[in-house]
Write a structure and sequence with these properties.
Number of helices: 12
Strand content: 25-35%
Structural class: alpha+beta
CATH topology of the largest domain: D-amino Acid Aminotransferase, Chain A, domain 1
CATH class of the largest domain: Alpha Beta
Order of helices and strands: EHEEHEHEHHEHEEHEEEEEHEEHHEHEEH
Number of strands: 18
CATH architecture of the largest domain: 2-Layer Sandwich
Distance between the termini: 40 Å
Oligomer: single chain
CATH superfamily of the largest domain: ATP-grasp fold, B domain
């Protein structure tokens, strides 16, 4: 069989690496001539809304998936008329617009931070009466890794914040005093089988994920799985999904969801019985899902802007390196490494060394 992937970056690369042992062939649509996944399949070079290329993809692929959520929803809808595409187009539509996404959560009974839509400065000024300070103003579309956001600490910053949005439709959200940022990675197959990974505890800086820990027997696991199930049912979902959450006094508030494999699930490559990437392939091919059991202790560290020398990373005990074949650039995820060990003390020692090394080369 042949799987099509919209996008050819590191997530597509890891999907393809997981699919090759399942005898999958890949065809990748990406505008770049040298995207990281290109060596693992045939390449259609062009824009994601190029109808000629989309038709070629539909003709050649038995099933299509995507590696990022800013794929044009119309492209996904077109592909759905000509082949199978998972996750479904309505998952893209729900996740691409922050206001739509927040309303979607509320309709499912999933709590969020307070929010309001903002189309002009007067909307922002009015909203702050009930949102309160501090708050964060975000563009409704195309923001990720801290982009398209402005933190508002007091009333004096409102005009500056709105000017920074350059007039695009936005959403303002109240800050919550959370104890942890966590995410749940889950999978659902075409037949409706579901699987849930242990929760990931995430540490961000500058809006970019830095470190993720696998959490064993976490008390929030059951509530997070219940939220993920609501997403699955509402969207008739197929594939892997990541739901990002805040823990606040023993309750979970939804931040956002990503209808794709996710950075906070990279620890599963070495740290789980079946990686998120293999389970994504199994889900969209309607194969039985693999066990999501954690294997010992594991965590993932991102390298942002630049990576440390390979020798320095791999000299750390129990460390596994994943390079993305990307040129160094400020704020860019260029690699990640995981620590996995059955020995908790050794795991913690190695992780401390890896975090220090990543911080040394950080360029964000």
């Amino acid at each position: 069989m042949t799987t099509g992937i919209l996008g050819g970056g590191q997530l597509a690369r890891m999907i393809a690496l997981a699919g090759l042992p399942l005898a999958q062939k890949f065809i990748i649509l990406d505008p770049s001539a040298d995207a990281g996944a290109i060596p693992l399949g045939s390449h259609l070079q062009g824009d994601y809304d190029d109808m000629t290329l989309l038709q070629q993809l539909a003709d050649k692929a038995d099933v299509v998936t995507y590696e990022f959520e800013n794929v044009p929803a119309l492209a996904a809808s077109y592909l759905a008329e000509h082949t199978c595409i998972y996750p479904p187009a309505k998952a893209l539509e729900a996740s691409q617009d922050r206001l739509v996404e927040k309303n979607f959560f509320h309709n499912l009974g999933i709590a969020t931070a307070p929010f309001a839509h903002v189309d002009k400065l007067e909307d922002l000024q009015q909203a702050m009466h009930h949102i309160g300070y501090p708050a964060i103003l975000k563009s409704r579309r195309f923001g990720y890794d801290g982009k398209g956001q402005f933190r508002i600490l007091d009333e004096s910053q409102l005009a500056e914040a709105w000017e920074a949005m350059q007039g695009v439709p936005s959403i303002v959200e109240g800050f919550v005093s959370f104890q942890r940022e966590i995410s749940i990675i889950a999978a659902r197959s075409v037949s409706g089988e579901t699987a849930f990974y242990p929760l990931s505890e995430n540490i961000h800086r500058g809006g970019i994920l830095r470190v993720t820990h696998c959490c064993h027997d976490d008390p929030m696991q059951q509530q997070a799985e219940a939220y993920a199930n609501k997403l699955f049912e509402a969207l008739d979902y197929v594939g892997v999904v990541a739901l990002e959450l805040f823990e606040v006094n023993g309750e979970l508030l939804a931040n956002e969801f990503a209808p794709r494999v996710h950075n906070s699930g990279h620890w599963t490559i070495e740290g789980a019985e079946t990686s998120q990437f293999e389970n994504h392939m199994r889900a969209i091919l309607d194969l039985p899902l693999g066990a999501t059991t954690a294997c010992g202790f594991s965590a993932m560290v991102n390298f942002i802007g630049a990576s440390a020398p390979d020798d320095d990373i791999l000299s750390i005990e129990n460390c596994h390196l994943h390079l993305y074949d990307k040129a160094p650039r400020k704020g860019r995820k260029v690699a990640h490494a995981t620590i996995r060990s059955d020995d908790k003390a050794l795991f913690e020692q190695s992780l401390t060394k890896l975090i220090a090394l990543a911080d040394q080369y950080d360029d964000s």
